[in-house]
Sequence to fold (206 residues):
Amino acid sequence: MDWTEFLTIAIAHLLAVASPGPDFAIVTRQSVTAGTRIGLWTSFGVAAGILVHVSYCILGVALLLSQSPTLFSSMKLVAAAYLFYLGIQSIRESLQAAPSNGAEIRVIVEPRQAFWSGFLTNGLNPKATLFFLALFTVVIDPETALGMQVFYGLYLAVATFLWFAMLSSIMGRQEVRQFMLKAGAWFERGMGILLIGLAVQIALVR
Fold:
């Protein structure tokens, strides 16, 4: 194993995954409103999305996406539309469930729904496409064995899951949830506005 290459990949990934973005927003929302277990399922979905990016980078599809403005623009619009939908849904739920007595909002989410939310949020993110394209064309040597590239991909997926699992365990703690949910509907609205903002940001990516 080329340890210099591996450490470069690990550090670049840590900086990317720790930066607030769609994955961070969706895992935080799910963990706070539905608890740690649902946050973990969402994290699992995000990690599975990483494997999609790794797969098409190894196959060379990422290069095709980057060189085809039409394909890349279509992917951006689909990703932006999905995040926009999640944002609107979050705001609608806060308005429909807004209690008059200041009670907390608690959203019931099935594990399957949580997984797909995480998977689609990450898998459709064009910024992730650009990140992994750079990783597999600039950082990882083209001569690196296929088996080692697969190992790197599995590491990135596992590391992503562990990072967001940690976030889920923190944001899903009862005292943290109680603190965040004191705002009740306003927390949901805030997360909705954040998701819509991220959708607009992704749509404007060039």
